[in-house]
Structures are given as structure tokens and as C-alpha cells.
């Protein structure tokens, strides 16, 4: 995010020698990006800020190269309700055509906030599945597995809380989040699933965990 609030996406490599510039998965870079190899620096809009020994490039044609333009940009970017979507290929289906009415799920989530926007309060959890990606996506709308596959985590969380709660009437957030995964088949059967073209869909159109 630039100093004026605008959003820019770049390939994470220095145009000088191709070294990775941002080594952390998330955070705030401050006022500029700095390559850890030769200290080339770039503004947060991606433009070249400074390079060491700049006079040494005079008369070399450097100003006519892509390196002089700064960080390589990802051109196809759409910001929808503060969610950032990027397409790396130059050609492809337009954003609106690809997502269509499935964007209503994002609207439904964001509109629940009194401010009309959401905030990320913690770092994301990233994990890698060595599998066919279509199986992972299909799993998100499979309502016959939660009470089985998540019993060791959700079921244990409920049992521990029931044992330790004492006189407390407040339910910890972890139990609120994991507990519903142990709901019976009947609950999930009645929750409803909605699907759209291009593989989009969500569970819980009638009721939700």
C-alpha cells in the first residue's frame, strides 16, 4: 500500500539481479523497499528510489531499461471490498465474469461490519496441501466430514471446556469456533449449499456454524 493509500502489486524480485526483496510473508516495509543484495531501493509504488554508484550507469543506456522503471508490476489487479485479486497472465476471463454473483458472499461478510469493512487482526495461517486442488476446494462444501475428521480437535475442545468451565458462563472463542464442527448430520443437511459457475460456492445459506 502506497503512502496515498493506493494498492500496488509487484513481483517479489529486484530488477537488478532478481533477488527476493521482501523475505517476510507479511508486515509493513515502512517508507520504501530495499534489496538485501546491492541496496537498490524502491518507493512503495514500485518506482526506483535510489541505487548505489548511480553515476556509474551514465551513458550505459540504463534509463532505457525496465530496471529503471522499478519493480515489475502485476498488471491485472482488482480490489473488491478491500479484498485484492490478481491475475498473473496477461489475458483471461474478466474479474466480473469469472466471479459473477458469487461476489455476494463477500458482500454478505463485509456488510455485517458497522464500518462496512473488515480488518485482519492476526497473521494468516498458511499451509500446503500436496493434492489435486479440486479435491481441496470440493472439501469446503462437503458437509459429511466435519463431525468425523475434526473430532480430534473440535470434539476435544468441547470435552476440555465442559470439564474445566466450572461456574463460568462465558464460552471461549476457541470453543465457539470449533464446537459447531461437531454438529450432527441433520444440522449440516439443513444448512444448504449454493454454487455458481466457475467452481464458486459456499455452505450455510439456510443456517451456518
TrEMBL record:
Gene3D superfamilies: Naphthalene 1,2-dioxygenase Alpha Subunit, Chain A, domain 1, Rieske [2Fe-2S] iron-sulphur domain
Keywords tagged on the record: 2Fe-2S, Iron, Iron-sulfur, Metal-binding, Oxidoreductase
Source taxon at top rank: Bacteria
Keyword Metal-binding: yes
Protein name as annotated: Oxidoreductase
GO MF entries: 2 iron, 2 sulfur cluster binding; metal ion binding; oxidoreductase activity
PROSITE patterns: RIESKE
Residue ranges annotated for the Rieske domain, each copy included: 1-52
One Pfam family per UniProt: Rieske
Organism in which the protein naturally occurs: Sphingomonas endophytica
SUPFAM superfamilies associated with the record: Bet v1-like, ISP domain
Family: Belongs to the bacterial ring-hydroxylating dioxygenase alpha subunit family.
Keyword check for Iron-sulfur: yes
Amino acid at each position: 500500500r502506497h503512502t496515498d493509500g493506493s494498492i500496488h502489486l509487484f513481483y517479489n524480485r529486484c530488477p537488478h539481479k532478481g533477488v527476493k526483496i521482501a523475505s517476510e510473508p507479511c508486515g509493513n516495509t515502512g517508507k520504501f523497499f530495499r534489496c538485501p543484495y546491492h541496496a537498490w531501493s524502491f518507493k512503495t509504488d514500485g518506482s526506483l528510489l535510489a541505487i548505489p554508484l548511480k553515476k556509474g550507469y551514465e551513458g550505459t543506456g540504463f534509463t532505457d531499461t525496465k530496471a529503471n522503471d522499478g519493480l515489475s508490476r502485476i498488471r491485472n489487479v482488482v480490489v473488491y471490498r478491500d479484498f485484492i485479486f490478481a491475475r498473473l497472465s496477461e489475458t483471461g476471463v474478466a474479474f466480473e465474469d469469472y466471479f459473477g454473483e458469487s461476489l455476494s458472499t463477500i458482500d454478505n461478510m463485509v456488510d455485517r461490519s458497522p464500518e462496512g469493512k473488515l480488518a485482519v487482526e492476526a497473521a494468516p495461517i498458511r499451509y500446503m496441501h500436496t493434492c489435486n486442488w479440486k479435491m481441496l476446494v470440493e472439501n469446503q462444501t462437503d458437509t459429511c466430514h466435519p463431525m468425523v475428521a475434526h473430532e480430534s480437535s473440535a470434539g476435544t475442545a468441547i470435552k476440555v471446556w465442559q470439564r474445566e468451565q466450572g461456574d463460568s458462563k462465558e464460552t471461549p472463542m476457541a470453543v465457539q469456533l470449533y464446537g459447531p464442527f461437531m454438529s450432527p448430520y441433520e444440522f449440516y443437511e439443513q444448512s444448504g449449499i449454493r454454487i455458481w459457475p466457475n467452481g464458486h460456492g459456499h455452505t450455510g445459506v439456510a443456517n451456518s456454524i
